[in-house]
Design brief:
heterotrimer, A mainly alpha (about 260), B alpha/beta (about 160), C alpha/beta (about 270), A: about 260 residues, mainly alpha, C: about 270 residues, alpha/beta, Rossmann fold, 6-stranded mixed beta sheet, 4-stranded antiparallel beta sheet, 10 strands, about 40% helix, binds adenosine-5'-triphosphate, binds magnesium ion
Chain lengths: ~260, ~160, ~270
């Protein structure tokens, strides 16, 4: 009985120590990525290639999702607003929800599952097949050559993807609200423009998506780099990337929103 | 993949992303309707601003002509001082009337300007003299109730 | 001339977690020679190469390369040293996202400012040496196991290193390629003035090309000598190894409970 209790306590302690150790390890990793970022910019082609894989290849899913989310917002928003006779505020509703929240958050969640998981799997497999070790043996630092360009590729892609998501969503809302349902075109845009502030809404949205880009890419890279070099290890790491980075996006979104829109 | 095609795709991607930001700024946001550099400042004192907030629009005849920049409490007069920036293109007479209005029943509050007939125009730093406070729903309701009650009393007194 | 040994290994011990893998290894690899390290699977040969390359740190003792103790170097110095080492990995470890050509060109592009036309000539030269010039456009996934190994070999020698470590260069090769690669290793070593360490199971092929042989078993050096000396030995493990006999002093099985005990355990569970 006592034995078992002690074992449980020891197990908990072990897990806590492990978690703290991992966090320390992760921050050292992140720091190393930042300090080894020189090559990503000196040889910008390396980063361009990663923007292609993280950004360009995520375009389709981002644009299509953005369009449909905007269209749903248009439908639901109209349904609710017309009860109060303020369907002219549809543009405001669609644009504000997208620019402030849905654009950055949904784009980041899609990015985590589309690009983040791919990054983890790729790095994990490179490690499992000794490519990372081989690179080290060739006197090439894999953090600088492999990890940092992927980091900057993701960080650059994310805000652009989020902006495209929002723009596409506003277009979707316009299609449903104005073209299909027949909300007045002028009111739709003018109300939107008078309610959406560039600094408070648009710029804060861009900043948010930048932070999400850093979080998602850093988590994906760390999970890949830390994955045990086995098929099972890589598959678990990929799952963890999607779960952890999605949670991180939602928690960060709350914190950033509380911070940015406080007192407004 | 060929390096040139890759460069092309990434270039297109970045341009499209920046274009999206631009669309959000100009078409969705207010960056095009309002330009800070070509504007002048006005002030107005109110007894009660209700739910007016900084960055609320300033409208005249329904057109957005400016934006509220700051709301402060003046400790000498115990009134609210509202500062706003107005687009240079729009001029208003000295005796313009400032009101705090609500867009729709539940919409956000904005500052409305009713131009008067004065020959002299307001210039930067001037103060709008005539103002009408926000309609505060609670006081509206309570005065309505009071009137009703008074009416009821009057009715009761009648035989 | 600082020392006639390029690599010196002294009392080297290494432990994975708690299990000792290498125990008291002493080796000298003279400059300009080709030295083979042989031993049964799992006896710690790859681990030894990793210690020489500085990927692992010894728990005791040291490996010295060109007079420098590898595990005491800081990362800059270690990278400087590795630029002059080439390593063929046991499983190839080709970069799967770039072509065969780019794999071989990788180090040239990373470490030199050579113009692309010269890099092209050099890469084709290295690929020609392993007989795969025609395959330079392929991706690693499109290669057979033996081809991948030869590409990895071409990549290991891309920058003409002073020390080349081959981890099982002969695995997965047909008899013709085997002879060609064996000769290539010898030839490269002499032409470049390099020093080579060849880890292999293929005793017959390696005895033809090497200058010296170390035999390892269970983390220790158990025999050493020139090919002539090795061939002359007629007893014990060396004979067993050279002639591929199953019975002999060297156990074939990984240490563990006896087979009978394992089987009995199985029977209890059933
Ligand atoms: N990452 C590791 N963690 C724990 N033990 C390991 C690890 N890698 C190797 N070992 C153990 O170390 C011992 C030596 O391994 P090593 O890879 O050096 O063998 P080897 O001589 O190269 O064998 P082979 O000829 O089969 O390649 C083995 O018993 C193996 O179980
Ligand atoms: Mg091995």
């Amino acid at each position: 009985m006592l034995e078992r209790g002690l074992a449980a306590i020891r197990g908990t302690g072990h897990r806590v120590v492990n978690a703290i150790w991992r966090m320390g390890y992760a921050s050292r990793f992140f720091f190393a990525v930042l300090t080894h970022s020189g090559m990503s910019f000196r040889r910008f082609y390396l980063t361009v290639k990663e923007i292609y894989f993280a950004g360009v290849l995520s375009l389709i899913i981002i644009l299509v999702s953005g369009l449909f989310v905007g269209m749903v917002l248009g439908l639901q928003g109209y349904e609710t607003l017309q009860k109060y006779g303020s369907e002219s505020a549809l543009g405001t509703l669609v644009a504000l929800s997208l620019v402030r929240e849905l654009g950055p958050v949904l784009a980041a969640l899609l990015f985590a599952s589309r690009a983040g998981s791919a990054i983890t799997a790729e790095i994990g497999l490179m490690k499992a097949t000794e490519q990372i070790t081989a690179m080290e043996m060739m006197a090439v630092n894999p953090i600088a050559r492999v990890v940092a360009p992927r980091f900057w590729g993701g960080v650059i892609s994310m805000p652009l993807l989020a902006a495209m998501f929002s723009a596409m969503g506003v277009f979707g809302g316009y299609l449903v609200g104005v073209v299909m349902i027949g909300v007045d075109d002028g009111q739709f845009w003018s109300q939107m423009q008078s309610a959406v502030d560039f600094r408070r809404d648009v710029l804060n949205g861009v900043i948010k998506s930048g932070v999400f880009g850093v979080a998602v890419t850093a988590i994906a890279l760390f999970e890949g780099y830390d994955a045990p070099p086995t098929a099972e290890g890589v598959s678990r790491a990929t799952t963890r990337t999607v779960v952890t980075s999605s949670l991180a996006v939602l928690v960060l979104d709350f914190l950033l929103t509380a911070f940015m829109f406080r007192g407004i | 993949m060929e390096r040139t095609t890759l460069d092309l795709w990434v270039g297109l991607f970045v341009v499209a992303g920046l274009a999206a930001v631009l669309v959000l700024a100009m078409k969705v946001g207010n960056l095009s309707t309002f330009n800070m550099s070509e504007s002048y400042i006005l002030q107005a004192d109110f007894d009660n601003i209700g739910g007016l907030k900084a960055r609320a629009p300033v409208k005249s005849a329904g057109v957005v002509v400016g934006r509220v920049t700051a709301i402060t409490f003046d400790n000498a007069t115990y009134r609210a001082r509202v500062s706003m920036v107005i687009d240079k293109r729009y001029k208003f007479p000295k005796d313009t009337f400032g009101k705090i209005l609500t867009a729709g029943l539940l919409g956000e509050q904005y500052l409305g300007l009713d131009p008067g007939g004065d020959e002299v125009m307001l210039k930067g730093g001037d103060k709008i003299a005539k103002t009408q406070s926000a309609v505060v729903l609670e006081s509206l309701i309570s005065s309505f109730m009071y009137n009703k009650a008074a009416e009821g009393d009057a009715n009761a007194k009648k035989p | 001339m600082p020392s006639e040994n390029l690599v010196e290994i002294r009392d080297l011990n290494f432990t994975y977690d708690v299990r000792p893998v290498l125990q008291g290894i002493n080796m000298d690899i003279p400059r300009g020679k080709v030295v083979a390290i042989m031993g049964l699977s799992g006896c710690g040969k790859t681990t030894l190469l990793r210690l020489i390359g500085g990927q692992l740190k010894p728990s005791q003792g040291a490996a010295k390369v060109a007079g420098q103790t590898v595990h005491e170097l800081d990362s800059d110095a270690l990278y400087r040293m590795r630029r002059r080492m080439g390593m063929l990995f046991q499983f190839g470890a080709l970069f799967t996202d770039i072509s065969v050509f780019d794999n071989v060109a990788f180090q040239m592009r990373e470490h030199t400012d050579l113009p692309e036309s010269l890099i092209r000539d050099l890469v084709l030269l290295k690929l020609e040496a392993v007989g795969l010039r025609g395959a330079h456009d392929l991706m690693p996934a499109e290669l057979s196991g033996g081809m991948a190994r030869r590409v990895a070999l071409a990549r290991a020698i891309a920058l003409d290193p002073m020390l080349i470590m081959y981890d099982e260069p002969f695995a997965g090769l047909d008899t013709i390629s085997l002879g060609v690669i064996g000769n290539l290793i010898r030839h490269l070593n002499d032409a470049l003035g390099a020093t080579s360490i060849v880890v292999t199971h293929d005793i017959q092929e390696s005895l033809k090309i090497v200058d010296y042989v170390y035999f390892m078993s269970e983390g220790r050096v158990i025999a050493q000598g020139t090919p002539a000396e090795i061939r002359a030995v007629d007893t014990g493990f060396v004979r067993q190894f050279v002639h591929g006999e199953i019975d002999g002093p060297m156990p074939f099985h990984y240490p563990g409970a006896t087979y009978a005990a394992d089987l009995a355990l199985e029977a209890v569970h059933a």
